[in-house]
Design brief:
Blueprint (H helix, E strand, L loop, with lengths): L1 H13 L30 E7 L2 E2 L4 E8 L2 E10 L5 E4 L8 E7 L7 E7 L6 E5 L2
Parallel strand pairs: 1-8
Antiparallel strand pairs: 1-2, 1-5, 3-4, 3-6, 6-7
């Protein structure tokens, strides 16, 4: 009985009573929703271009600098492959870029798409409609 009382007093003195989430004196982490942050390592962006959710091959895609959410200086232009993708390499991690493409479906006005931000490390999807 004496040993139990001493153990209880020691735990109370430490402010570390029995808590299933605090067995080792470290509180359990809590999940919090936050804003995405730039990836400091990835230096390549995979761009997928689709039309009505189908891959669009041989589509021109450009990457440029991002100047306050607007395309700045052109860095490169590439064509998508048969799967509708192209990969831009040599990008500076955690830097904002703009990815843009234009598509002119038959007998309809041209559609322009531009995405400017620093979240390109997750992949960029450009989806046009017919």
């Amino acid at each position: 009985m004496f040993a139990f009382a001493v153990t209880a007093l020691a735990l109370a003195a430490c402010g570390n009573g029995y808590n299933i989430n605090n067995l080792y004196g470290t509180p359990a982490p809590t999940a919090t929703a936050g804003t995405p942050t730039p990836n400091p390592v990835i230096s390549a962006a995979v761009v997928l271009v689709t039309v009505s959710s189908s891959p669009l091959p041989n589509q021109s895609v450009s990457v440029s600098t991002d100047v306050n959410g607007v395309a700045g200086s052109l860095i490169a232009t590439q064509l998508t492959d048969s799967t509708g993708t192209t990969t831009f390499t040599g990008l500076t991690p955690a830097t904002a870029y703009c990815f843009a493409s234009s598509y002119a479906p038959p007998a309809l006005p041209a559609q322009n798409y531009s995405q400017c931000n620093y979240l390109w490390f997750n992949g960029v999807t450009i989806n046009f409609s017919n």
